[in-house]
Design a protein that fits this description.
Elements: E1 16-17, E2 22-24, E3 30-32, E4 36-39, E5 46-48, H1 54-61, E6 74-78, E7 81-84, H2 85-96, E8 104-108, H3 114-122, E9 127-132, H4 138-141, E10 149-152, E11 163-169, H5 178-188, E12 189-200, E13 216-217, H6 220-229, E14 232-238, E15 245-252, H7 267-289, E16 296-300, H8 304-312, E17 319-323, E18 333-334, E19 337-340, E20 349-354, H9 361-365, H10 369-374, E21 378-379
Length: about 375
């Protein structure tokens, strides 16, 4: 029996089972085990069955952007300039929250603390605090623009009830025991203190549906219920300031938790996502079969979508390279396939599989000059 991580209702049968006995993680690694996904009709939460030995996975295997302090994920290309995720997250945060008067600000589940680093660079009055469940990132914490307090594995008890703001960037989707973590965060805040966090929006980025270590896929309804039950009020859920994400602000309250009625279910949208991913392998197989058997491919996008495409190909040896505009990925390999800038697409590539969010893929590909000039056929996921 599996219970919902938000409202603890017993979950019905899975709405999706991965087609192969492998899954893809946040780190874009293929691991053994079938992905099974459930939908709670009470609070509208979507939930993935946990990976085995999850605690060891985060302590020993999980890492993100560890190739130097500047290593980051590409957010968008804006007017020809690369915008990376921590830069955008810091800009949105500073536009939403007043961080003057020397606030004590904790990044909870911070990894390198890249976003808080940018915030402190922009506002030296911020007193930075850093916490992560592992100590592998401490080398990045030691040279913060302003000296930081930090803790690994568990937050420092001395911080309890003293913090003005707790931040969390892409952490809650990984945590099965949400109630315990939210109690910890609430206890760290002073009365009236602010909790600000970002989590993926499943409905705006379909890849989140199949990420094996994202055990939680939130909706506005499940977020509101989760926070109200945990003793937070003044809940604001913004789905427009950050692409494919919910930006959430709320405050620690001292009153009894607000009663939240059952959330309206997004059953049709969840079913459509399940159908999309259940049939994706067949579509990719048909696209592969439509190209001459000796032709070579490229895959545009070295993220989850691109890796999924690679895993579906009958003959992955035909893939010449991944194409990706993220300079931190170029020159590396993904599952033995090199990653290059789109301008460096090899001459013998006869077709390109597009491993991008289907909601944006055609718009992005239409602006890639190296593909337009070559008139290479592109295969999309939808």
């Amino acid at each position: 029996m599996m219970l919902c991580n938000v409202c603890h209702t017993e979950l019905a049968d899975p709405v999706y089972r991965g087609g192969a006995n492998t899954s893809i993680t946040t780190m874009n690694k293929v691991v053994s085990g079938q992905t099974r996904i459930f939908h709670c009709r009470t609070c509208d939460h979507v939930q993935t069955e946990e990976l085995p030995d999850l605690e060891r996975y985060y302590a020993e295997e999980y890492s993100i952007n560890e190739d130097g302090v500047d290593d980051d994920q590409l957010y968008e290309i804006r007017d020809g300039r690369e915008i990376y995720r921590s830069e955008h997250q810091a800009a949105v945060l500073l536009s939403k929250i007043d961080l003057h008067n020397n606030p004590k600000v904790l990044d909870y589940g911070c990894a390198k603390g890249a976003t808080l680093r940018r915030v402190v660079e922009a506002n030296q009055s911020v007193e930075p605090y850093l916490f992560d469940v592992t100590d592998k990132y401490q080398r990045y914490w030691r040279d913060f623009p302003r000296p930081a307090q930090w803790a690994s594995h568990t937050p420092d008890p001395a911080w309890s009830g003293t913090l003005d703001v707790v931040l969390s960037f892409y952490a809650l989707e990984h945590i099965p025991h949400l109630g315990a973590v939210l109690r910890d965060i609430r206890a760290l805040l002073r009365p009236g203190g602010l909790f600000y966090f970002i989590v993926p929006n499943l409905y705006a980025n379909w890849a989140d549906f199949i990420v094996a270590d994202h055990v939680n896929h939130f909706s506005p309804g499940s977020l509101a219920m989760m926070l109200a039950r945990a003793g937070f009020g003044d809940i604001e859920i913004d789905d427009s300031s950050h692409a494919s994400a919910f930006v959430v602000t709320c405050r620690r309250t001292e009153t009894a938790p607000e009663a939240i009625s059952d959330a309206p279910a997004s059953s049709q949208a969840v079913e459509e996502l399940a159908t999309f991913w259940s049939t994706a392998r067949q579509r990719i197989s048909e696209q592969e079969g439509g190209v001459a058997p000796d032709a070579r491919f490229a895959i545009y996008g070295a993220g989850i979508y691109g890796n999924f495409i690679l895993s579906c190909l009958a003959n992955p040896g035909r893939v010449a390279c991944f194409l990706d505009q993220n300079r931190f990925l170029q020159g590396k390999e993904l599952n033995g396939v090199r990653i290059v800038h789109p301008a460096d697409v090899p001459d013998d590539v006869a077709a390109v599989f597009v491993g991008l969010n289907p909601l944006n893929a055609r718009r992005i590909i239409s602006s890639v000059e190296s593909l337009k000039s070559r008139d290479v056929p592109c295969f999309f996921l939808n």
